[in-house]
Amino acid sequence: FGSEITYFNEIESTQTVAHELSHKGVKEGHVVIANEQTAGKGRLGRKWYSKSGTSVSMSIILRPELPPQQTPQLTLLAAVAVVRAIKSNVGISCDIKWPNDILLNGKKLVGILTEMQADPDVVHSIIIGIGLNVNQDSSEFDDEIKEVATSLRIVKGRVIERAQLIAAILNELETLYDLYLEEGFKPIKSLWEANSISVGTYIYARTMREVIYGFAKGITDDGVLLVEDQQGVTHKIYSADIEIAS
Ligand code: BTN
């Protein structure tokens, strides 16, 4: 991945550009990187802050031959790849919160947004957008996210070289993607579970319709979160915000 890169010093969102390039037929593994995004997109319609020079903002185009319901597996794969790259490159161990938030000391370090272009029975491309807080100091986060966000620099106490980190993430992504294509989701699922803080614990799952409180039992082979409520009913969570109940 990353043998073809489209780079911008400033762009609204790498995710939007990646969608356009994907339509134009760029090859699998094409990466769109921006030094700064002016309208970064987050999950569930939220915005994503990424100011000049301090974060990694990139979108990777994949073209797996998959039915659409399997794409959540790639969302989880991306989170594992980023956690492994941070560990090998910076020496820090992070936690994954379902589906793919990466937390450090309980605060958000990385956000991942997976979007697909698909017909009902076949996926044309999957765009994986990764936003990683690298060199912000705590005063640089906007008031809205100050309490809940962190960066590698805050934890390491030094500036981190972004280019090497990007290369490490792309390498891990490619390695795990190849493993996935060869052996399926099983090995990825094990790696995800080993790095996750959101299974084997009580959680609140805020879906579009309701809040479910219960014990997170695990994930299915499609990457769906299973939560058993206090009546013993198991819910399948496809999309939600998760809060670990303390
Ligand atoms: C989230 O946690 O809500 C997901 C955030 C994803 C942010 C990344 S930054 C690169 C890519 N371009 C975007 O506009 N969003 C994603």
Q: State the helical fraction.
A: 25-40%
Rounded radius of gyration (Å): 17 Å
Q: Could you name the CATH topology of the largest domain?
A: BirA Bifunctional Protein, domain 2
- Order of secondary-structure elements: EHEEEEHEEEEHHHEEEEE
The rough form would be described as globular
**Name given to the CATH architecture of the largest domain:** 2-Layer Sandwich
Q: Going by CATH, what is the homologous superfamily of the largest domain?
A: Bira Bifunctional Protein, Domain 2
| Nearest-integer average pLDDT | 93
Distinct ligands, ions and cofactors found in the model: biotin
Gap between N and C termini? 39 Å
Strand content: 25-35%
Flag low-confidence runs: none
Largest sheet: 7 strands, mixed
Number of strands: 14
Number of domain units? 2
Q: Enumerate how many helices there are, as a single number.
A: 5
- Please list the strands of the largest sheet in the order they lie side by side: 1-2-5-9-8-7-6
| Helical/strand content category | alpha+beta
Write out key terms for the chains shown.
246 residues, alpha+beta, BirA Bifunctional Protein, domain 2, SH3 type barrels, five-stranded antiparallel sheet, 5 helices, binds biotin
List the helices and strands and how they pair.
Elements: E1 5-11, H1 14-24, E2 31-37, E3 40-41, E4 47-48, E5 55-62, H2 71-90, E6 95-97, E7 101-104, E8 107-119, E9 122-133, H3 152-156, H4 162-183, H5 186-194, E10 201-206, E11 211-219, E12 225-228, E13 234-237, E14 241-244
Parallel strand pairs: 1-2
Antiparallel strand pairs: 2-5, 3-4, 5-9, 6-7, 7-8, 8-9, 10-11, 10-14, 11-12, 12-13
Helix pairs in contact: 2-4, 2-5
The protein binds biotin.
Biotin binds at residues 13-15, 37, 40-43, 46, 48, 50, 57-59, 101, 111-113, 129-131.
Domain BPL/LPL catalytic: 1-181
GO molecular function: ATP binding; biotin--[biotin carboxyl-carrier protein] ligase activity; DNA binding; transferase activity
Function: Acts both as a biotin--[acetyl-CoA-carboxylase] ligase and a repressor.
